[in-house]
Here is the input.
Amino acid sequence: MRISTSQMYTNSVTSMLNQQSKLAATQQQLSTGKRILTPSDDPVGAVRSLELSRAQEQTEQYMRNSELLDSRLRLEESVVGSSIDVVQRIRELTVQANNDSQSNESRLSIASELRQQLDNLLAYANTKDSSGHFIFAGYQEGSAPFSKTANGYSYNGDDGQRQLQIGPSRRMADGDPGSDVYMSILNGNGQFIASAADGNTGTGIINAGSVANVQAFNHDTVSVRFNSETQYDILDSGGAVIDSGDYLSGGDIQVAGMSVNIKGTPAAGDEFTLEPSKRQDLFSMVEALALSLETPRKNPTERAEQHNEINTALSSFDRAIDHLIQKQSSIGARMESLQRQTDINSGASLQISENLSLINDLDYAEAISRFSQQQAALQAAQQAFAKTQGLSLFNYI
Here is the structure.
């Protein structure tokens, strides 16, 4: 077989270039620490690496969302907790104002502190987060959710709850609308509200009452109307008499599953109404009590009227505290669920990183050994080429 000089040169150069290419690829692997430099190095591994990288990016986004959500929920929990403290102080002032030893002047002083606490409560309800967004405004987070108007207190936000993705199949609200936290509190005892008619002339004082018979309680409105100081009739919502009884101060009156207690001396024609509880905003409750305490009372009838107003406010504040505690518990439950999901995300991120490492990371011991072999192969190819260059008849003529 005839082998030309040109062919020998070509084969030798091709061999050296191949060895140099392999050596350069190994050098790049050693410098980057990556086994796969191009998809052709490992097509299956490259596809799997791309899938894992996308999963890692998604998991990192879930973790960023979780951090934001945790910050918002912690702020909301703190604000609701501070609101509970304010309402508890308001309740203490209400109990203090209900004491017969208080004068008009002392109750006026209590009303002044009530208004200060009302301002504190309104400030908490209009809290902003670190980004300057109002946390109780729903989707309308750019404007203050609560404001005082000529007709009372209004909610300027909406009922929206922004949902954040914190897992592949898990979303969680980052807060609660103010309409649910501060504007939807059941007044009275939470089942019904007992109140005295404005035109009462006696000294009867009614308490908040309670539901004594759940089966008999049908959420109807009924009234207790006194025919005399010792006799009363029970009227339904249409004004028809459905029952009657003898009055004893401090004794329980039971009707339609409800039980109330009336003390004092009601006059003939005095009336007390029991009607289902309604949703009311917390700010108006405090405002109504402050107005009641700021109004001077000059005789026993007016003082009895004020006691009835204070009793109504006191039972409503109890419901407000329960309502806020439930909201705080709900926020705490979400934070606990968020922590569990965060732990799941952290574990998933670690697992994905380990799998990526198995696919992409270089085995340095194997690569260094291969690099040494490739260096030796390149040197051998170079030496062989040098020897081949010397194989010429001209060297022997």
In short: The mean pLDDT is 86. The two ends are 24 Å apart (CA to CA). The longest strand covers residues 241-246. The helical segments are 5-32, 43-97, 104-125, 178-181, 282-294, 300-360, 364-389.
